[in-house]
Amino acid sequence: MVFIIEFILTFLRGMQIFLILGTILPMFLPADSTLKIGLVRIIEPLLRPFRKVIKPISGFDFSPLVLYLLIRGVESLIRRFLLPLAL
Fold first, then answer.
1. Where are the domains of the chain?
2. Among 68, 63, 67, which Cα is nearest to 51's?
3. Calpha distance 87→83 (Å, rounded)
4. In the prediction, which pLDDT does 63 show?
């Protein structure tokens, strides 16, 4: 049981890293960069539902921030409630 919870927590941490990289790196990479295209393919399906609900405000897209906070919240809940039960 602990292994499964640790795997989920590691997966969530990886999603956070991909989200940060997928949000910041495209500003600095050229449009045809393979890294940029790969990150967009990973991150865009996760952000699409949030972008439907949260429209850009004055040109700023807050959907990555909302997704990041949601992932952090889920991770916190797992650490607080499920991990102590599994130990």
1. 2-86
2. 63
3. 6
4. 94
